[in-house]
## 1
Amino acid sequence: MKGKIQVVESEIQEEVVSENENTVKLCHGEALTISEGYTIAGAKRTQVIIIAGEVGSGKTSLIATLFHCLQRGPFCDYMFAGSKTLIGFDQRCHEARTSSSRAIQTMERTKSGEDRILLHLHLRHKEKLQQSVHVLFSDLSGERFRDAKDSIEECRSVPLLQRADHFVLLIDGDRICDIAKRQSAKSETIMLLQRCLDAEQLNNNSLIDLVFSKWDIVDSREDDANTLEFVKTIEVSIREKFFARVGRLRFFRIAARPDTNSDHINLGFGLEAMVPSWFEEKADMIVPRCPLNIQVPKHCEYDQFGQEYIAMENL
Ligand SMILES: Nc1nc2c(ncn2[C@@H]2O[C@H](COP(=O)(O)OP(=O)(O)OP(=O)(O)O)[C@@H](O)[C@H]2O)c(=O)[nH]1
Ligand SMILES: [Mg+2]
């Protein structure tokens, strides 16, 4: 075919062959800005996944490993069907490749203040081929969540939190193993959840996954009953404080990028139990609707509708 290839900055539409100019327009391939993300979310069935957690807790590694697993074939029943952010994924995976000459794998730190924070996947169900979904993952820096935990304004400024279909909060397994750091890891997690609820960024519709990351490190100390006991106390405290205030609370243990593969902890350990829900479930499929309660005015949209209906019936 005769024609030219044009990489269109800040455009993310499907690749188009323009008949007039005989031009193939390609998307830029880097991570997307929020407004570019809305272009996809407004046009297609899209799941928005916010990955939160302290600096270095493994947020970017989780997204990069998921991408890696999908490159090897169907993962969690879904096949890779495209991405607008292939360069963004590649930039994030580059430092962590096993072919890296470094002895220990490392992931480049996510820069705070970065505009291009969304990574995009288009997935297709491996059997029901007509079932496809677009997924947008946030890749924000840990500093953003550190600030959000300390200030309601900062919390309100975290993009897309209210629109999130799933809020995934990582607790660094490496810190949990360290007696000097584990208490602050626990209290910071609780403070961030509390702040998000106070700022109305999360609410009783939110689907929340609490994820102990770097489980390979915790697992390598399995003789250390103290650490496992501490993990349980975190789960109990978080359940007690937040179970009734959010739509769903689940706990997982993952090792997205273990330092060394053991016989039971490999790359992407724990993801298969957690990830399918991110592709398939939205709050209205999981959280029961509020019962009609005409005593509480405008308790929820459903109640408001019920009240108006009853008022009309009585006219
Ligand atoms: N042992 C182990 N290390 C991991 C695992 N996942 C990530 N890491 C390492 O943890 C470090 C931090 O990972 P990142 O993914 O950059 O963490 P982050 O939360 O994105 O960090 P910021 O962007 O700085 O907030 C890197 O050196 C990773 O290689 C894991 O499952 N096991
Ligand atoms: Mg990062």
## 2
Amino acid sequence: MSDAKTCPCGSGALFSSCCEPIISGAIAPSAEALMRSRYSAYASGCWNYLRQSWHPDTRPSKVTPTDTCWLGLSIVKATEDSVEFIAGFREGSKVMSLHETSRFAKDGAHWRYLDGSCDICEAGRNSPCPCGSSLKTKRCCGKL
Ligand SMILES: [Zn+2]
Ligand SMILES: [Zn+2]
């Protein structure tokens, strides 16, 4: 089962051929690929990788593990060194939407996460579900 897991980043590819190799140390081919791998690392609890993939200039001394229940990721816009995305997560019975624009920079051959500005709010019941399904939240992750 775990061998054929689809990637948490929502690419539709298998985890083992998408974000997992990058989490294991392969070079991410783009800032977007690195961002996706960081989302997958959050979703699967790879805290060491999250710290490792942070740019040395802004890297925290420690990444605090959280038990956030992530619902899905959708990329709004990606440029060479920035990625705007929406990620959905659950907080109690609420469906929350995290809208962030992250900046990335190269450290040697590797893309690294520099910083980002984010906006967290409760997903509107009639808005598109932040998990990226294209259904309304009330018909998707917000279904009671
Ligand atoms: Zn992936
Ligand atoms: Zn959903």
## 3
Amino acid sequence: MTATWFDWKGRLGPLRLRLTDTVFRPSTVTGLIAQVLEVEEGDTVVDVGCGCGILAIIAAKLGASHVHAVDVSPDVVEVGTANAEEHGVADRISFYRGDLFDPIPRDVEADLIIGDVSGIPDDLAAESGWFPDGRGGGPTGAELPVRMLREARERLRDGGRLLLPTGSLQDQGTILETARTLYGSVRELISRAIPLPGQLMAGRALPELVRRGVVELSQRGSRYLWQARVWELTAG
Ligand SMILES: C[S@@+](CC[C@H](N)C(=O)[O-])C[C@H]1O[C@@H](n2cnc3c(N)ncnc32)[C@H](O)[C@@H]1O
């Protein structure tokens, strides 16, 4: 396990964060979620797909009474706990390694879920270098977020909220259709056009995903852009 450092300059930053080669490096989308993250004093928060714990730490600093933070990364407990200790909130965050909500005690009922699991097609994920294990959210990038949305509904109190990032690099239509079926209200909070990185432009996966309508890009001059969005779902 090789530890590296990352300087978070987003909300409540600067914060120095420990990473390892199995832990996701916070991204532009992390920054968007942090920007719209609202926590009521005393909320119970679940952060699923927590990576190094940055959003869990921000939620704790904003007043959560407890944050349950899960990731599949083998280093999540060690890295997340070290980061939470460094920033004075370790007594209010529990880190777990596992699949989605499996490791979280059954009696935990969340006021807020941050649902930021990997959500781009597996073939793109393998070429992107964004995910330490090289895996995305399934063949269209919708499969894992849809499973997360179904399980989250069981863990969210009535009236509770879920923050859901989506992107035009995945089958957003299927994810949003599931969200509208399961949740009373689905509201877009923020949207950002992000330049497509060179390795995806040059890769083999993109043309086929665009042809099939899974991925949608826009163009500004010679640059291609994808659209990231963060939604607020309310359980009703
Ligand atoms: C886009 S990253 C976001 C990480 C973190 N929220 C951040 O913004 O820095 C998605 C995270 O979901 C995790 N993940 C993927 N599949 C998962 C699963 N089935 N259960 C829990 N976490 C998962 C990945 O390891 C990765 O850390």
## 4
Amino acid sequence: MISQISELIKLQDVDKEIIKTKKKLKEFPKILKEINDKIEKSIQIVEEAKEKLKKNQILRDKLELEVEDLKGKIDKKKTELNSIKTNKEYTAMISEIELLEKKKEEAEEKVIASLLETDEIQEEIKKAEEERAKVKGVYEKEKEEVIQKQKDVEVYLKELEEKRKKIASEIDEEYLKLYEDLGKTKGGIPLSKVVDGFCSECYMKVRPHVIVELKKGKDIVTCENCGRILYLEVEVKE
Ligand SMILES: [Zn+2]
């Protein structure tokens, strides 16, 4: 029986390590997502600046067309001036032309402002592209390291699972079943060491007659409080 207990202890140690390792593996997708998000964000900033430049270009094209259109209208009105007969008509036509000239100037000013904005946006794109290159360099490297680490942990988990299989094969079916069933209700920790007369999992004092039973080493002894299989320090053997 004692040898079975010491195998169960080994099994629990491996199981604890498996739980810890699986938990660690779950962290990797989160870390990788964070890295990808940072790379994506820097790409997005470049895309947004380029989109801004496109809109700026479209607006200027529209303004330039407007200037051309107004120039045409002004020229037409100026030609019409020659065929005007009355003073009143002439004055009205002149003020119409002045209004169109004013509109044309406004549109021309907007074209200039738009050109200045183009310079600013191009500078913005340049900076965003530099930042993107920098971010990509830093995080791509980090990503590679994380992926490598993830692979290492996956290999380690496989090794642990192999080790577990080997240990479990050394344990009688009856004890293994007891261990597995208890594990389900005891958070994966079905065994508890008695330390200084106390159950090390629930901290309840183990009564002297239970210790006596344990020392006999004939049968499975469980904690009267938490129900875990108890073992004594001396039973830990490699
Ligand atoms: Zn206990």
